Amino acid sequence: MPPxxxxxxWAWLGPVLVATFGALLRFDRLALPKAVVFDETYYAKDALSxxxxxxxxxxxxxxxxxxxxxxxxxxxxxxxxxxxxxxxDPCASYVAHPPLGKWLIxxxxxxxxxxxxxxxxxxxxxxxxxxxxxxxxxxxxxxxxLLGCLAGLLLALDGLHFVLSRxxxxxxxxxxxxLAGFGCLVVDRDRSRERLARWYEGSSLAGAGPWLxxxxxxxxxxxxLGAAVATKWSGVFFLVAFAVMSLLWDAGARRAVxxxxxxxGALRRDVPTALAGLGLVPVVxxxxxxxxxxxxxxxxxxxxxxxxxxxxxxxxxxxxxSWIDYQSQVLGYHTGLDQSHPYQSWPWQWxxxxxxxxxxxxxxxxxxxxxxCAQAVLGVGxxxxxxGSLIALIGLIAWYVATRDWRAGAVxxxxxxGxxxxxxxxxxxxxxMFLFYMAPMLPFMAIALALGAGLLxxxxxxxxxxxxxxxxxxxxxxxxxxxxxxxLYPVISAEDIPYDDWHRRMLFPSWI
Length: 512
Known about the structure:
Layout: H1 10-27, H2 40-53, H3 66-73, H4 100-112, H5 116-142, H6 145-156, H7 159-164, H8 171-200, H9 216-229, H10 235-257, H11 262-269, H12 271-288, H13 291-295, H14 304-307, H15 312-335, E1 357-364, E2 373-379, H16 383-403, H17 406-419, H18 421-428, H19 442-457, H20 465-492, E3 496-498, H21 499-504
Antiparallel strand pairs: 1-2, 2-3
Helix pairs in contact: 1-5, 1-6, 2-4, 4-5, 5-6, 5-8, 5-19, 6-19, 8-9, 8-10, 9-10, 9-12, 10-11, 10-12, 10-17, 16-17, 16-19, 16-20, 17-19, 19-20
Enzyme class: transferase
Subcellular location: Cell membrane; Endomembrane system
EC number: 2.4.1.-
């Protein structure tokens, strides 16, 4: 790998332009549909409750009660059941996910109001920033601004990423924090190798090698991955995998510089700081995300009266005990979630886009100028990008087996960690799951395509017919992805179109 230079104006201007393009797509008509879409019926209300009370409270009727949805859309604040100091339990809402993602949704509601634009604002912001992140991360991994911008553009043109960036669900926040944590570790990898290279000049290669310092980028990764777990528990898979990956990178760097005992050196010099940065820091972030639950009496299972009855020390231990018991109940809920759903799908179907999720659909007479109209938000990926990334990932397997290239290994590891655990839950627990659980893998599908494009184009050097052909293939694929996204756009952005136009865009019968 050549030294990494970050001085060109295009190093930032290119990714920023691509991210701006993606942001314009995501913020355009963000308030449409003017309805509570799919699981927004949980998270938009929970976010507003967090802003109002510090914790999630039970709202009127069931979670998908249309009366409560109408009151939310009308801006009314009488959404929650009546709660008095003598009856806290009825107003405490049992929630299945940690609060950080809902706090982020609440920031948008605080800035813009509790309306569709407000509760989708944070998703659009972080979805747009993830395009910038993936472009910068891919650029650092490939040492190519062109390939970095290609990865960002492909992520911007993915239909599922587009829909999740315009919907108040938690998955886009999980995706953002996983990508940010990965990016921090890639930067940490470069910085630690720079320190090793400086130490190598004139140093003895005997012993365990140097301690590489506090490593702030690794701490930053711990903050981001802790935030991922504080959004959805599935973030813990990435936390564990990235911690192991980072330590293997450390051992590989020590071996590359010529140290005679690279693994024992990494164990002695790098593991202690890794335990702090990728062990302690994520725990602190996760617990801190529950600050509202600790600070108020309204949280589910809070046991406030008992905790505050016998002094501060009893309050601490009783609160922690109640909180741990709550986490145990949530774990039981997730492992036992097997209720049938019309849009559920199995993980082996996800890469092929067999069963997407209809986030929103209305039909009948409309303003489209046809006898029958349709307005839809279909949570589906752009087929050209998804099938292309599947080919790229298979190619990366062969590339990694042949070369042991760390970039291929990192992308394959992340994709596998985000996908394969769901096979266990599907087979052992028959758990209800959906296509949008693929959200954390979307940036790495784009990076896989960028790495594959780099292999097709070849290294910079004298012009050759092979390089020209490779560039033409990559350009044609990018153009196809753009056309495919444009073709899907009306059914992923709630445009009012004739029913026949909607039906023509249903690639498989299972999309309906």
